């Protein structure tokens, strides 16, 4: 027996010697009177309807033949190519050339049927196909189509673009990002109601941070070499490093100018920071193996934990979304998941590069949050390397890593370290020039929260603020000591210790991380911190610059969210199992509501009553008077709005507010208490100050209320009324 090639691409068996003469009726292959087909054909492509296991047939002489071992006419071949569900009108050229009166010869085994009552080609004995269709219903395909098949339509570029855009719009990450943004707008409302006139929480530190973004953009646009020597704190150098800089937001500072644009920029970044925190924690939980609803719980609890409401005036603390996002990207690039472990086939060096860049960007927003993140990241790398080599050396586990992945980690780690070093140089310089800027362990003790802080909510909490007023009253500095991450989060994390998608070992690891983070958040309150916080303060470079240990609660909140995500994910999987057993397999409305209940509880507990006060308007003199300039009265809270007002011209100003007060600025404030007099005027001239603005609306009850209108005889200065502002030209 030889095998030819059929037009459809499959093999076409032929026989030599005596063959059965099979003649097909011209009417389209009608069945014989006894119910058998005219021929035994295989379906298109040579696949037998019975799964490729057709039984042997016998010919008229009783000789056994393999399935499909019969002669086929060209018409048969054309019919074999025709799918059964296609029916085309016949043309005269499709008619069979053999006489319609001839019949097939019956096989010696009994009319050519299989032992299961079907013909050798899988058709029932009543002349129908296996799916119940008459063979006459299957029309023959046009044989000329094989010579010139119609080309498949190729979509245009706009069609491909539309499909890709549609897939992108309904992608999980797109929906998660949009959901995070919408939730951020709602949860921070009314931040965007009057974004050019108000600031969240208060207008002191937010004014400083609005100025920081504006200054970084101005310096990059005009003179990048002067970035660290800002226009505030004149004539001090390195003044931009007197506090966390939010340097990562410098691209936003390139857009707009003036105080109102600075306020608008701040409010937009305030909302986006919440959205990024939600999205980053969601992505991290998903990468580790949590379900969508479980990851949503982790994301919302991380961004809207009640303790963060007291930090609404500190954008560098709220801007923490780069931490979980960078960890998620690095884990994805290394093919690692908490639930599924290491999967080498999922490695991707592009995600590794992106993860390191996001980590470097997070570090550039400030060391208050970025420095602990850097140490956590470095510790994670060291532990991962030790585990990797231990498994290869001691356990003989050969798992591929790849040269490209190693290079990505090396280059990305160097970029991250380089950004850290470049950011640290100005701060070390400031520490040398201003020794009083360094914190002592006594300063840390003043801001160290007690254990009851973890169950005390800030006043801005809509749910618990009023109820916890008594508990806050006993805290030495409650704005930094109300560290409640949420009772709903506590309950979900506790449930995650007993019912979770994570393994027992993973749950214990997460719990240990929570306890370590909470212990460090207590600073020196945990048995004096001698074995917890103090060693870090003494030996880790830069750790002594962290004034408020309570902000380490970020890590406890993130790990509690992952524990909660494990519990919610396990619950949602159980709901799916129960739903699959129902008829129809669809969850009831109550089951759907039950899966959303944890998310709703976390959202409700994160609602706030944060005030959004109106920022004092910029005096007209700040838009026209040049520097060096001093604005009186001067103080920490007075000077921060003055820094914001200076964003129109960025003239040099003596005023400034930061985490510490330079001694020279303290001397200026002390000497100018009697301004205008000869001593204060001579001292300001020595510093190079040319103009002094006195705000009449702010001097009630101060010595300036009388002295600013005193005669100027012998001082060689001039006084000019500019609305509610007095301008003294020195």
UniProtKB/TrEMBL annotation:
UniProt key word Transferase: no
Alphabetic keyword roster: Membrane, Transmembrane, Transmembrane helix
Transcription listed as a keyword: no
Comp. bias (Low complexity): 1-14
Region entry Disordered, spans: 1-156
Transmembrane intervals: 173-192, 266-285, 292-309, 375-394, 406-428, 483-501, 508-528, 552-572
Basic and acidic residues bias locations: 73-93, 100-143
Source taxon at top rank: Bacteria
Protein name: Uncharacterized protein
Species this protein is from: Micromonospora maris
Lineage: Bacteria, Bacillati, Actinomycetota, Actinomycetes, Micromonosporales
């Amino acid at each position: 027996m030889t095998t030819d090639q059929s037009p459809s691409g499959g093999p076409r068996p032929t026989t030599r010697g005596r063959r059965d003469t099979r003649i097909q009726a011209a009417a389209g292959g009608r069945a014989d009177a006894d119910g058998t087909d005219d021929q035994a054909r295989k379906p298109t492509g040579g696949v037998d309807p019975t799964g490729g296991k057709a039984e042997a047939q016998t010919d008229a002489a009783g000789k056994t033949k393999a399935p499909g071992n019969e002669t086929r006419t060209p018409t048969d071949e054309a019919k074999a190519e025709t799918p059964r569900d296609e029916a085309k009108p016949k043309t005269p050229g499709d008619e069979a050339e053999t006489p319609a009166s001839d019949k097939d010869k019956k096989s010696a085994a009994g009319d050519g049927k299989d032992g299961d009552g079907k013909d050798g080609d899988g058709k029932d004995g009543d002349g129908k196909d296996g799916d119940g269709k008459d063979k006459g219903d299957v029309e023959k395909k046009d044989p000329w189509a094989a010579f010139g098949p119609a080309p498949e339509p190729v979509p245009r570029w706009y069609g491909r673009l539309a499909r890709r855009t549609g897939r992108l719009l309904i992608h999980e990450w797109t929906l998660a990002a949009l959901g995070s943004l919408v939730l951020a707008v709602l949860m921070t409302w009314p931040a965007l109601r009057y974004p050019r006139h108000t600031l969240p929480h208060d207008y002191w530190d937010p004014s400083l941070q609005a100025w920081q973004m504006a200054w970084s953009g101005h310096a990059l646009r005009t003179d990048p070499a002067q970035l660290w020597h800002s226009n505030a704190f004149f004539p001090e150098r390195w003044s931009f490093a007197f506090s966390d800089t939010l340097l990562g937001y410098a691209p936003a500072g390139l857009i707009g100018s003036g105080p109102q644009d600075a306020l608008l920029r701040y409010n937009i970044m305030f909302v986006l920071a919440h959205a990024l925190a939600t999205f980053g924690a969601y992505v991290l939980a998903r990468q580790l193996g949590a379900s969508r609803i479980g990851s949503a719980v982790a994301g919302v609890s991380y961004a809207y934990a009640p303790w963060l409401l007291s930090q609404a005036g500190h954008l560098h603390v709220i801007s923490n979304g780069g931490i979980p996002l960078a960890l998620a990207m690095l884990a994805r690039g290394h093919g690692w998941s908490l639930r599924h472990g290491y999967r080498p086939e999922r490695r991707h060096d592009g995600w590794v590069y992106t993860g390191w860049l996001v980590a470097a960007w997070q570090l550039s927003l400030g060391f208050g949050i970025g420095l602990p993140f850097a140490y956590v990241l470095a510790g994670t790398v060291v532990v991962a390397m030790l585990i990797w080599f231990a498994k290869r050396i001691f356990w003989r586990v050969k798992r591929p890593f790849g040269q490209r992945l190693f290079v990505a980690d090396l280059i990305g780690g160097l970029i991250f370290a380089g950004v850290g070093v470049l950011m640290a140089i100005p701060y070390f310089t400031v520490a040398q020039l201003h020794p009083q800027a360094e914190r002592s362990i006594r300063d840390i003790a003043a801001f160290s929260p007690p254990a009851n802080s973890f169950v005390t909510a800030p006043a801005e909490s809509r749910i618990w603020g009023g109820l916890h007023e008594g508990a806050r009253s006993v805290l030495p500095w409650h704005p930094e000591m109300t560290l409640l991450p949420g009772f709903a989060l506590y309950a979900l994390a506790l449930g995650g210790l007993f019912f979770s998608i994570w393994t027992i070992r993973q749950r214990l690891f997460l719990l240990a991380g929570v306890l370590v983070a909470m212990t460090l958040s207590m600073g020196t309150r945990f048995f004096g911190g001698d074995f917890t916080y103090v060693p870090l303060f003494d030996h880790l470079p830069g750790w002594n610059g962290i004034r408020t240990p309570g902000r380490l609660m970020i890590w406890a909140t993130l790990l509690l969210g992952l524990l909660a995500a494990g519990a919610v994910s396990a619950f949602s999987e159980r709901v799916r199992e129960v739903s699959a057993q129902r008829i129809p397999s669809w969850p009831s409305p109550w089951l759907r509501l039950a899966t959303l209940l944890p998310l709703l509880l976390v959202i409700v507990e994160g609602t706030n009553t944060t005030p959004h006060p109106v920022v004092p308007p910029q005096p007209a003199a700040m838009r026209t008077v040049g520097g060096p300039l001093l604005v009186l009265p001067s103080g920490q809270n007075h000077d921060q709005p003055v820094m914001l007002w200076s964003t129109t011209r960025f003239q040099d100003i003596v005023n400034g507010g930061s985490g510490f007060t330079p001694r020279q600025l303290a001397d200026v404030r002390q000497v100018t208490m009697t301004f205008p007099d000869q001593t204060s005027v001579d001292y300001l001239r020595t510093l190079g100050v040319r103009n002094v603005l006195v705000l009449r609306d702010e001097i009630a009850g101060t010595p300036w209320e009388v002295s600013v209108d005193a005669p100027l005889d012998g001082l060689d200065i001039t006084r000019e009324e500019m609305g509610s502002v007095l301008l003294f030209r020195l």
